[in-house]
Amino acid sequence: MKKVLVCGGGGFIGGHLVKRLKNEGFWVRVCDLKHNEFSESPADEFIIGDLRDPLVAKQVVKDIEEIYQLAADMGGAGYIFTGDNDAAVMHNSATINLNIAEEARLAGVKKIFYSSSACMYPEYNQMDPDNPKCSEESAYPAAPDSEYGWEKLFSERIYLTYQRNYGMQVRIARFHNIFGPEGTWTGGKEKAPAALCRKVAETEAGGSIEIWGDGKQTRSFLYIDECLEGVRRLMESDFTGPVNIGSEEMISINNLAKLIMSIAGKDVTIKNIPGPTGVRGRNSDNALIKEKLGWQPTQSLKSGLEKTYPWILEQHKALVEKV
After folding, report:
1. Is 287 helix (H, G, I), strand (E, B) or coil?
2. For the domain 182-220+249-283+300-322, what is the CATH code?
3. CA 258 to CA 255: how far, in whole Å?
4. Which of 56, 118, 229, 233 is deepest in the core (most CB within 10 A)?
5. Could you give the residue ranges of the DSSP H alpha helices within 46-85?
6. Fold of 3-178+222-245
7. Of 159, 161, 158, 154, nearest in space to 139 by CA
8. pTM of the prediction?
9. 114-160, pLDDT tens digit by residue?
């Protein structure tokens, strides 16, 4: 039984990944600052630890064959684009990646998956909401719109140098807005799909919800199951990446809200207000993943939201009942 480590396995994507790996027959160790918030992890071993500490990193990589490194200091636009958390985001995530890369090398770990982000793409290619350019080769000259994106780009290069200098096998994916049940949905670190599902869930019909910016900024959103399929296919391939794992179904944030309203069967007014929005347009370019892995996501945004909205609605109802 292959022994794998999931760093950040107490989080949204990591938690779902642990379940998938267990279903595939792996022995799984998790390291995170916290346990999963919404369900019990099926991990064989769950270590509560801070990967910014090199001693913790050294401990968790012992006897491990493969690592999935998803641990990071991150959140939605309200956390990433205000500028208030830049130093913490840069320091915390870079320290984790430096520690994991070095301790994995020393421990003889064979392969590492690193979860990068579409936030590392240059802002100058994402000014037109209708025609963003996010193909993998467009990453340079580098000019991410956030310190979060700069850290992701830096850490990609950490892992690529460890592959080049030490022969460690590395796989890198750039995630584009992953969403689904059991993700953060309130508290300030939630991303757009969860935030809008929550706002629609908690607003009476005929009421209004607030959306930052003019709502014409565009994004694509990928359901969690498709993300995991892409990760596993990449990990089992002989392709290093970096490669996009995301949807090519682009939508404006206002239209995303309207789609959620239709799923909820609720007519709500949109009120656009000033707020952090990030780049004007972003959409996954899947040409490379189709070429290298012979696969790309196919599930529609609507089908993913039809699974996510009811879950967030239940969370909201449970929270209201507690108050």
Report:
1. helix
2. 3.90.25.10
3. 5
4. 118
5. 54-60, 77-80
6. Rossmann fold (3.40.50)
7. 154
8. 0.95
9. 999 999 999 999 999 999 999 999 999 999 989 999 999 999 999 99
